[in-house]
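Q: My collaborator sent me two sequences in one message, no labels, and asked for predicted structures for both. Can we handle them in order? The first one she listed is below.
A: Yes, handling them in the order given. First sequence, followed by its structure tokens:
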Amino acid sequence: MAEPSEEKLGQRRLLDPAFNKSTGFSEAERDQYKLRGLLPPRVLSLDEHVKRVQSHLRKKDSDLDRHIYLQGLLDRNETLFYRSVIDHIEEVMPLIYTPTVGQACKEFAAIFRRPRGIYLTINDRGRIEELLRNWYEEDVRIIVVTDGERILGLGDLGANGMGIPIGKLSLYVACAGIHPSQCLPVMIDVGTNNHTVRENDMYLGLIQDRVRGEAYDELIDEFVQATQKVFPGVLIQFEDFVTANAYRLLERYKDEVLCFNDDIQGTAAVVLAGVFAATRISGTPFKDQRILFLGAGSAATGIGDLMVSALVEAGLSEDEACSRLWFCNSRGLLTKNSERIAPHNVPYAHDLPEMSFHEAVEAHKPTALIGATGRPGTFSEESLHLLASVTERPAVFALSNPTTNAECTALEAYEWTDGRAIFASGSPFGLVDFHGEVRRPGQGNNAYIFPGIGLGAIACGASRISDGMFLASVKALAEDVSDSDLAAGSIYPPLSDIRKVSLAIAAAVAKQAEAEGLATRSVDNWEATIAPTMYDPFY
């Protein structure tokens, strides 16, 4: 096909999602770009386009169909997609991320329409820098990367896990105003041990067992080093790696490059902010909290690690802080006598007798119960009845995603604690009518934290992301929970405020980075500096 003439290049705006406005091109633009006759005559405003999107969405039969429609919209008209997400975030976020993204990942190969992001495989060793340079944008500021081994609570989905980086980066844009051109999703494909995925004729990833050991580590290291050459100073967000790799990679790179693990640190920050907010309802000071975890993987112990830092800051010794946190797995309470204790669990393996989860509730008398099991129904009626008998206003965090994997529902938490539970979940629950009282359960969504972290780190030119920066994000989020939010039963702000929340977090993170000597830029007012830089999609 011949190259388009210069006078025809303007028409390519109809085909480029970054510039396409469809029937939103003005009369003047239709003449300027020679679009006259290529579009229906009526010019529609962006608001009219958003209304049409909502109408189409509401006519779809399932959330997966809505997800597919929205991804198609992103492929056609980037501005309209992000305006629709921002203006209807409470309705649209669950469709582009949790819980619908879980099903979308399972169906990723079947619903694949247009390539998005970079796919790196174990067979590309020695060429990773070359492949990254194939990306068509040069000013990449944020990379979200996964190897697809632990996608939400769904396990090993291989290359189908690319839906997670794509979804996360959509939230960076919508929630924190990172420009779409500065975002790069990356899938590192080393195979999959999920034979159901591999045997699907539509699967698009490598058809082989997962590569582990030295070859895996060399590939990851080549990727990290190549990002620093191709996109100097880029922020790397590790996402949905299996627990052992998640901790190992974070420890390997956190002091070397600008990076964090959202499953470990982002989850920790959003839960800790929820605990802070819950103290305003319960009246129990944070330094007096007793926390019991069900689940001892990377998410749970990541929460524990950040809580220890916060308790130490509140005046406890590290040993005292660790003693406040008890962890149970499927075999019961983690103790010094437990078998096969993972390195990240060692600080929380106490010198205590063996006991079941139910017995641990009775013995520890937790003020907060945190579930990170990936299994539904693990907060039983019996355990929550017991929790309510030992704590007047217990905080109950059912964090497992998607919604179907939550440890209990919001209604169950209220019913089984006589309405005294302060409930939050990982995926959204709707309004709950509890004996005539309408409650708005809080959603401990990482989207409250990671976009603001990224925005702040970019704004100040941070060289690293410290625990102090995460604690700053926690305090900023907790401070944005209003009395009216608490009165409605929520320990998080409404999602409709999320851009305001992200800006406050970004400013707090940048200020903390500056205080720790990790920022390469310094300003007097970070909020005033950052706000004008946030991408706001308009025609």
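Q: And the one she listed second?
A: Here it is, processed independently of the first:
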Amino acid sequence: MYAIDGQVTQLTNALTDVPTSEAVGWMYNGLYRYNESLVPIPDLAAEEATISEDGLTWTIKLVENATFQPGGANMTADDVVFTYQMSNSPNCRFNPSICLANVVLDDPDTEDDPEDPAADDTPVLTSVSKVDDYTVEFVLSQPYAPFATVTLPGTLIDSKAAVEAAFADFQEASGQVQDAQITDLNERIAADAALGEDEEADPENPATNPDPVQFRGELETILADAGIEDIPQPDPALFPLLDPETGEETGELDEAAYVGALIGVFTDLVNSRAAQGIDAIAAAYPLLSISRAPVGTGPFYVTEFNPGASIELTANPDYHFGAPALEGLSIPIITDDVAGASALIGGQIDWKYSMTADSYNAVKDAPNVKLAQYPDFGYFGLQFNLREGKLFADPNLRQALALCIQKPEAVEAATQGQGIAIYADIPPASWAYNEDVEKYPFNAEAGKALIEESGWTLDGTSKFRGDNTTVYQKDGQTLGTQVLVRAGKPDRIAFMGFLADQSNQNCGFDISIKEVDFGTVLVPMLSWPHAQQGKEGQSVIDKQFDAYFGGWGTGFDPDPYSIYHSSQCTTPDQPDTYNYICYQNKQADKLIEQGLAELDQAKRAEIYKEFEAILAKDLPYLFAWSDIAREGVNASVNGAEQWTPENMNTPTWAYQLEKITKTEQ
């Protein structure tokens, strides 16, 4: 039993969270996969790609014995071309990090137009085509370093037949809703949203302010009539209204957050209805039944899905690397970290893929558990919403907060020594890590000076602390906000507790924290319009989160495009890109683009180190720590050879899933 620690979202390329990614890894393959040394090697590719001298044409031969399960149909070049055409569609709804349509590069042969710097940008993938049944050719617009390290391992190959069949079912069901009905509602939602962007809006006049809640009934009716049933649907029970003072649930529905989630689903329906061919399928991808009944080439396939509880898998007998040694696999969902550790010790589960210090301390001496330990390629931080009108759009306040806490000590205490304090986005395990960046060492007086420079005065009363604590205030607003943190993660909660206390005691900030569920609260908040449950206000911006504490699994290539490039800022037109804080810096954009086009690793490292220096100074995140990652495995579970600490010291130590065995005890 392989436990994951969060609710499952999309069991396809549309996944956007780590727990679902962990589950999906057992079900699909990419053209490449990473070996134990983090080197991309052929997977569904039969051999290494043949690359033209100019680095633009990649020809890949495919294995001829890979099968999609359930069903057993052979994977061919048609499936690969189809998958990458969806990735390259302007309507791509894959995980943003693998949507090639999102990656546009600056044409090096033309000069930038100062009036429109993006005018000469070109999509990275020019074409993908079938050479024969088991050969595919990719043509790039210019050399793109992450193609081998991110795209080929990260893009899971879909079954063309399964996706098209699911799309046909979707079209038949959604065809019950008339075009005119969809168009009319979409136009009214757009007009309502535009009210929030109108500089003439009057907070006292409801007619000039957006009110998406008014569309709830129509949205629910249309989505029900469209037959969108086999995907994670917005459930009113998962959107409780929070008291703005205490952060506690009131027992009422947060209609704004719930309706925002409905609008996200409706937008996919609108975009699919308005498109043709592959673009229509790409837009509808998250709405298709394959999200709950995936069809992949992996070593295991889904035989039973129990929402909120578990996924049951059966071995793929025709797996192209050989039939798995295990006959099946169960993936239970255990959201509480310590409860997961107890289940591992008790033998209720066999594998816990991530552990905080608390769960590690609980299992480290258990005789029936062995541990994998390695530098993690992810990081955690307090992520600031940088849109105009938000509290931390002011760089003085971001810098002040960094100066007002003793970060290394807070990291050490919160993670119990499992975290390494960081100051930019690329973790110490990476070849592009820059140790020499701005670190904002503790200096409360300098922090308060920055706060006062921005017009705040130390004469306010705390909104969140019941002891009449004096805090900074300005125009009736206290200098703080409620920050949502994922429940069941004691290290994150502890760090934010230290940050809230220290920043208040040292510098008069007024920050509180609220533990919430990841899949039902945080994931919807990180999609446009980013409404935070319980947050009041007249405009879309008012209701958005000010800051959120979370993390990223960065992958082994340090490319930061999907998280920090200006083009990836979320908007109503691209609600699910990863730059949801809307960080925008032209110099940083240029460095990101240079890093994508540079194939020499040493030169790429220098580019990214310069980028890190900019990021550390700008502080779009208050970067916190990168983990020393730990996984716990039952002693009876092994790979092709005995798993020991010596060969469990890299993130990909168990990459050959088909060779995993369990000895009955």
